[in-house]
Amino acid sequence: MTTTTTPEVLSFEEALARFDPTLGLEVHVELNTASKMFCSCATVFGAEPNTQVCPVCLGLPGAMPVVNATAVESAIRIGLALNCSIASWCRFARKNYFYPDMPKNFQTSQYDEPIAYDGWLDVEVDGETVRVEIERAHMEEDTGKSLHVGGATGRIHGADYSLVDYNRAGIPLIEIVTKPVRGTREQAPAVARAYVAQLRDLLLGLGVSDVRMEQGSLRCDVNLSLAPAGSEVLGTRTETKNVNSLRSVERAVRYEIGRQAAVLSSGSKVVQETRHWHEDTGITTSGREKSDAEDYRYFPEPDLVPIAPEREWVERLRAALPEPPRERRARLQQEWGFSDLEMRDTVGAGALGLVEETIAAGASPAAARKWWLSEMARRANEQGVDLAELSVTPAEVARVQALVDEGKVNDKLARQVFDGVLAGEGTPDAVVEKRGLAVVSDEGALAAAVDRAIEANPDVAAKIRDGKVAAAGALIGAVMKEMRGQADAGRVRELVLAKLS
Amino acid sequence: MSDLIRRTAAELADALVAGETTSVELTQASLDRIAEVDSAVHAFLHVDAEGALAAARAADARRASGAAASALDGVPIAVKDVLATEGLPTTCGSRILEGWVPPYDATVVARLRAAGLPILGKTNMDEFAMGSSTEHSAYGPTHNPWDLDRIPGGSGGGSAAAVAAFEAPLAIGTDTGGSIRQPGAVTGTVGVKPTYGGVSRYGLVALANSLDQAGPVTRTVLDAALLHEVIGGHDPLDSTSIDQPLPALVAAARQGATGDVKGLRVGVVKELTGEGYQAGVQQRFDESVQLLVDAGAEVVEVSCPTFVHALATYYLILPAEASSNLAKFDAMRYGLRVLPEGVEAPSAEEVMRATRDRGFGDEVKRRIILGTYALSSGYYDAYYGQAQKVRTLIARDFAAAFEQADVLLSPTAPTTAFRLGEKLDDPVAMYLNDLATIPANLAGVPGISVPSGLADEDGLPTGVQVLAPALADDRVYRVGAALETLLTDRWGGPLLDRAPALEGASA
Amino acid sequence: MPDISRDEVSHLADLARIDLSEEELDHLAPQLSVILESIASISEVAADDVPPTSHALPLTNVFREDVVRPGLTAEQALAGAPAVDQQRFMVPRILGEEA
To answer: Which of A471, A481, B441, B507 is in Cβ range 3.0-4.6 Å of B211 for a Cys bridge?
Structure first.
């Protein structure tokens, strides 16, 4: 809305003094199946518009859906990993509403018969375990994507027309809905974030989704309501859409707590509505009101037959699940030799999977942790994105460390290599090549530089000859300066000491 | 009129094998006949002379090289305009799809092409198959070749009339509540609704997904069996398709044509006779039953008490499914786009509303609104939910009846063809036409309608319906063929020989 | 079974995105009432313990392998579109939530 006035927001502390927040999270996960939910079209991200479409996903008259077996299997595996019961019999239903990016004007989804229900996920916040109960995980299909043209470009309001690409229409989605999460108090924002982070790790571990929040393959809606402190009754909730990074999840919860508290404190009522999260300003604004008139007219999809997963199939999938996150964390901590604090920091930064992959690519645990939690974390923070969204892969981090270990670059140069990789200049090796970052390993050139440094600093050289090895630093510094940092400091030291011994 | 066009498809196939004719010759004969009479009959919405002749030439080439694609290779066919045909307009009889050319073939159409049947064109129908008279076509009604002032039945009046008027030896229809069988009855032709799932629905523009079936529209039972074997069988693109081989339908039709029905148990459904059925229709039906008895069948009366609720059940399930199916016609991706009058820079939603108002006819709007109502949250259990339960009861009635009888018999339609316009604005009276045909769709069982004669009071065709248990399509062919033989023997020739000669507009 | 009012028909037409004129409402509402009346019998037929039938034949677990097959080209996909721009379906401005 263009008429947005900045709403009153109570401070977080003040809000919590008066109210108890109740959280609910709805996460949509795009599965990484090769083909779509109900047709054989490809699902490649970023393809040319309307090139991954067919009569089925375009909703052409006469076309009929056929369920993707792998999508069902992924849904069951997600359900099992979330400790859910798996339905012995369930169906797809049609959710009827009109929207131009939905080709059939109904979404094929699951209604009162989800494939997985009644589960839980334990998340850790500040060293404490909070159990988030899962209400359901169900299968559905994604919609197309609209580009709004004219007016304020990209915004739906004021647009003159829209352009629709149906490549995304029909990509399998799993919607995971929590039960209301109560009693988390001041931890509510952190719990929300930890839940999404852990869910992401779990899905990554299952290998069922790319879980790239920035590409929309994991999307989060945050439900939040406030009740007077100590009250048993739930307040009116809002549903905040478009919360598409871990940081945003935390910020959106914090913001809604403050906003709703201000509304309630002023004697007004919270309106049950959809709200939109604005990453740039860090606030939510009012969207569409959830009216009672919304009537989706669900009924069982008559073009599909029921799904009745055989018990043996489910048990086979259960047996083949990757280890649960808690066990996995314990095992990795032991394997890597991390302290509790190091482990907590790694998990908290959403870096567990990244560190694991970096180690798998050849880096030492300490090096992997160092890069992700210091250098990468700083950059992610600067860019306001999550670690996983940085355009650098664990394999690239491992390669940079290998370059360091091989003496091809030093730590300082390594940072410049990352600059290049993040700027899209190519692989670490390519960046070293292009930017000319390799340390000087030409012994002749180094020796000459060392000689020049000795000549220019006779008194320092004399001290070293007298056995004051600590003085070598000044000569090494001089050599490094001459070499513009592109020398292996260790080798320089060796040369200096050898010449002055 | 060329003699070729009066021959059955089976005879034409034999003539092609014998080299007495060519596919091009008989396709051209059909096209000539269409040119001659279709301005009066209006069975076709689109004729594809060029495409049909090209397919005919290819068929002749295959024959010449001894590699016929199927028994019916080269025999031309007409296709109801509700099936998607790549490169050929597909309108479903609706303004909202005017000019739409699908980029793909329905499985049935793909199988016809693969089997070498030249497609003459697309036949007229009630808009989105909603109707029993073809008067709800946005492109004007089809006329019954027996009396051009009368309806040809519906929704597949175009396919039935095309076959009855000798414009095509074969046609494809679709049957949701009787749209193949009832037009067959009132035009003196044969129509088969296969077991639900027996013929792929992929590419059939859905009216009511859980009821729709495509099937053969022909002049003889054997022709229907030949066509059914071409289009039937499992299709992985249709999740509701039966993954089993078809029974031997042609063999069943040939066996039945001997007229031998000894030991056959025929059930006459009490609820589908008597009151509400025109005297002449009932009379021809009773005679048909007697002929079977005379030929050695045993007749039992069976009761299917829930059938009296079939019509109501149908008119809840169908509109509910249809209202959702037809939501996709919204002016965004294909078909008509109407800008509302007097609205500057209309929104997508306003364009949808205006287009759907202009693009849909009255009957479609009635059913969409009825279906929207039946699915509304406050009414779902009372209507759609309840209708689904009654469906179970109807299936149970069938199961009980098939314990007493091998097949069930009834008149196909309660009356002969009525006059155009007579019931157009009385939806309930129109719906009653499907009284006897609807139960089969609700239970998914197969049925055939074969001509049973002419009603004494108006001299118009009547039909008898044979129903069999699900998957036993061979039985409807066997008994249908037996009836056909017994009746044709009695008449001294096919019923259609008694139809008045059509005076073509161009003749 | 209740009669269907003119207002109710108007609301349903709204849900179904059909812009019915006043005349059409006058015409359709009474017809719909008659139709509803004729199907009213349904509500008392089946007992609570009767299971619903949504499919004529009881099939389950019909799946497709997760294999990509070629679909339509963009040109084919867009061929029937009322308006096209930048290889996308061009539609009138969409009212709704802010994207």
So the answer is: B441
Subunits with 3+ C-beta pairs closer than 8 A to A: B, C
Question: pLDDT of B388-404, one tens digit each?
Answer: 999 999 999 999 999 99
Based on the residue annotation, tell me whether B506 is a catalytic residue of this protein. Answer: no
Indicate yes or no: CB of B210 within 8 angstroms of CB of A106: no
Q: Which residues make beta-bridge pairs with A21? A: A226
Chain centroid, CA A488 distance in Å: 37
Residues near A210 by beta carbon (within 8 Å), at least 6 away in sequence: A30, A32, A45, A217
The yes-or-no verdict on residue A288 having pLDDT over 80 is no
How is residue B480 written in tokens?
């249908």
Report the predicted TM-score, pTM, of the whole model to 2 decimal places: 0.87
CB atoms within 10 A of CB A129: 9
Those chains having 3 or more beta-carbon pairs within 8 angstroms of chain C are: A, B
The pLDDT assigned to A440 comes to 67
From the list B127, B93, B111, B128, the residue with the least C-alpha distance to B172 is: B111
> What's the gap in Å between the CA of A260 and the closest CA on chain B?
31
Please give, one letter per residue, the 3-state secondary structure of chain C.
CCCCCHHHHHHHHHHCCCCCCHHHHHHHHHHHHHHHHHCHHHHHCCCCCCCCCCCCCCCCCCEECCCCCCCECHHHHHCCCCCEECCEEEEECCCCCCC
Residues of B in contact with A112 (CB under 8 A): none
Annotated catalytic residue: which of B70, B179, B288, B410?
Answer: B179
Cβ neighbours around A233 below 10 Å, total: 7
Cα(A280)–Cα(A254) distance, rounded to whole angstroms? 15
Please, is B365 exposed, middle or buried when counting C-beta atoms within 10 Å of its C-beta (0-12, 13-18, 19+)? buried
**Which residues pair with residue A238 across a beta bridge?**
A224
Torsion of CA C44, C49, C55, C57, to 10 degrees: -120
Cβ of B103 and C83 within 8 Å?
no
The answer to whether C94 faces chain A, any CB pair under 8 Å, is yes
**B167, HSE (Cβ side, Cα atoms, 13 Å):** 34
Q: Rounded to an integer, what distance in angstroms lies between the CA atom of residue B116 and that of residue A228?
A: 75
DSSP label of B204: B
- Closest chain B residue to C40 measured between Cα atoms? B312
Question: Of these residues, B80, B122, B193, B423, which one is catalytic?
Answer: B80
- Dihedral of the CA atoms B70, B73, B77, B79 (nearest 10)? 50
How high is the pLDDT of residue B507? 39
* Residues in C touching B352 (Cβ below 8 Å): 17
CA distance B58 to B418: 42
* Whether residue B410 lies in the annotated active site: no
| A162/B324 Cβ within 8 A | no
Residues of B in contact with C80 (CB under 8 A): 100-101, 103, 333-335
pLDDT of the residue at A408: 83
In 10 A of CB B24, how many CB atoms? 19
pLDDT by residue (tens digit) across B423-450?
988 888 888 889 999 999 999 999 999 9
Q: Give the percent of chain B with pLDDT over 70.
A: 99
- Compute the average pLDDT of residues A31-36: 98
**A61 Cβ under 8 Å from any chain B Cβ:** yes
Cβ contact, residue pair A67, C63, below 8 Å: yes
CA distance C99 to C97: 6
